[in-house]
Amino acid sequence: MPDNLNSSARTELDDITRVIHLGLAVLGVLAWLTGLLAGDYQKLHHLGFSIHRWLGISASLFIFFRLWWGFYGAREAQFSQWLPYTWDRLLAALEDLFTLVKLKLPDRPAHQGLAAVVQAFGLAVFSWMALTGTLMFLFLEPGHKARGALHALKELHEGGLWLVLIFLGLHVGAVTLHALAGDHLWKRTFFLEK
Q1: Residues ≥6 apart with Cβ < 8 Å to 116
Q2: For residues 25 and 54, what is the distance between their CA atoms, to the nearest angstrom?
Q3: Cα of 74 vs its chain's centroid, Å
Q4: Residue ranges per domain, the chain?
Q5: Whole-prediction pTM value?
Q6: Cα-flanking dihedrals φ and ψ of residue 79, to 5°?
Q7: pLDDT, tens digit, 9 for 90 and up, residues 164-186
Q8: Architecture of domain 3-190
């Protein structure tokens, strides 16, 4: 296996990647929560939809920037360095699953092994929500019922609610396990600590 998959040394992410993650965490969760209020888009007064719409488009900007950063940003944040698309990277994720079954935490750098699979899933889910949400931002007219392709798009966007919930459960669960083990990853995100 490549050396970086076995190394237990923490890879420090650059400040831009950490700010993007913080923006996604805050705006993504707020957009997700306010999505529960967005059903009033058919009404003349649609405060819930408006709040959700603007939080969602703000989160989408962070997603689009993260996707761009994944190709052109700092080396550690580039998709070529961590996406689990090689056999070695998938084996590392499987190895991490067996480690968890033994009630131990995997000891890998950031964005490697099982963490890479969860992060790739989250990025895919949030990208889907950003794409469908941006299209609705542009074409859904508040005060009118969505019809045809726009209605199908709205339904696909709403279906993502459960995928976001699954991702948040996995991600927050992993961060919580690390915190209980004394590795406070959450401080690096919310307080931008090194």
Answers
A1: 82, 83, 84, 89, 92, 93
A2: 16
A3: 18
A4: 3-190
A5: 0.84
A6: -60, -35
A7: 999 999 988 888 887 787 666 66
A8: Up-down Bundle (1.20)
